[in-house]
Amino acid sequence: MNYENRVTVYIDILGFKDILSTTVDKDGKDISENIDKIISAYTAIRDVWDLDDTSLRNKIPSKSKKITTFSDCLVISFKTDEESEIFHTLVEIQWMLMRLITRGILCRGAITYGKLIHTDEFLFGPALAEAYILESKAALYPRIILHEDLIEFAGNTNRFHKDSELEKEFIKKILEKDSDGMYFIDYFASAESELDSHYDFPEYLYIIGKTVREGLEKYNNTFKADIKVKYQWMKEKYNNIVDATHNKKFIKSLKDNGEFDLADAFLELRRIN
């Protein structure tokens, strides 16, 4: 058996131990509601890739994509020569992140490419080791990061947009470049284009704000600085969107188009202090 050159995604569910601790009360009795929350999260992950619908297996565009879930981790990989698969996978991960955050669950991860063996029986290789190190040492916040060279690489495997530069342009629409220079899959502003309606976006932002507020309140008086900084990062991203949607020109443009309810929905959003 030899290694294959594969794009590799390693994703970790943040605070999984804390989530598990809420599934059993002090007397050792199961708390069904919280157990169902974890099951709902796993279901959301599996639904994105239709992992439980065998009738769709042959309809998946990628012929080499493998997905493995275990405990609080998820690994996705596919051969590097799969046409436009980087673009499609980034969109799928964005969907997953959006589904999880509506359940109050945050993720962190990294995407690399290199040598990997990923079968039903085996999962190992330098690409996975690098992705794990990036996730644990560089991702830092609830974000899934990738190097800019992966974007360049994706441009050489395009088919969906039929042009290398156009492929990279569409990929960058899914991403945001952070203050540290790392690209990450944007589940904040870019999420709007993936929702069924523009009217769903304010509600989605409200859920993000609620998640951040609860996290900041929960860890406000603890010594878990590493957790606080994750919510502080999300707070900054959330506040930036709220500021943009409260912009007078933006609100005026909505009202000029007769979208008064949408304008009011955005104005109801509040910054997190």
Structure description:
The chain is of the alpha+beta class. It folds into 2 domains: 4-189, 2-Layer Sandwich (Alpha-Beta Plaits); 195-267, no CATH class. It is 48% helix and 16% strand. It has 10 helices and 8 strands. Strands 1, 2, 3, 4, 5, 6, 7 and 8 form an 8-stranded mixed β-sheet that branches. Helix 7 (200-218) runs antiparallel to helix 8. The model is unreliable at 52-60 (pLDDT under 50).
What is the overall number of helices?
10
Top-tier CATH class of the largest domain: Alpha Beta
* CATH superfamily (homologous) name of the largest domain: Nucleotide cyclase, GGDEF domain
Q: What composes the largest sheet?
A: 8 strands, mixed
Terminal Cα separation, in Å? 55 Å
Secondary-structure content class: alpha+beta
Helix content: 40-55%
Compressed to H and E, one letter per element, the order equals EHHEEHEEHEHHEEHHHH
| Number of separate structural domains | 2
Low-confidence stretches: 52-60
Morphology call: globular
**CATH topology of the largest domain, what is it called?**
Alpha-Beta Plaits
Overall pLDDT level = 89
Number of strands: 8
Q: In percent, how much strand structure appears in the residues?
A: 15-25%
- Our Rg estimate from Cα atoms comes to 20 Å
CATH architecture of the largest domain: 2-Layer Sandwich
Topology:
Layout: E1 4-13, H1 16-21, H2 32-48, E2 66-70, E3 73-79, H3 85-101, E4 107-118, E5 123-124, H4 126-139, E6 144-146, H5 148-155, H6 164-174, E7 175-177, E8 183-185, H7 200-218, H8 225-245, H9 248-256, H10 260-267
Parallel strand pairs: 4-6
Antiparallel strand pairs: 1-3, 1-4, 2-3, 4-5, 6-8, 7-8
Helix pairs in contact: 2-3, 3-6, 5-6, 7-8, 9-10
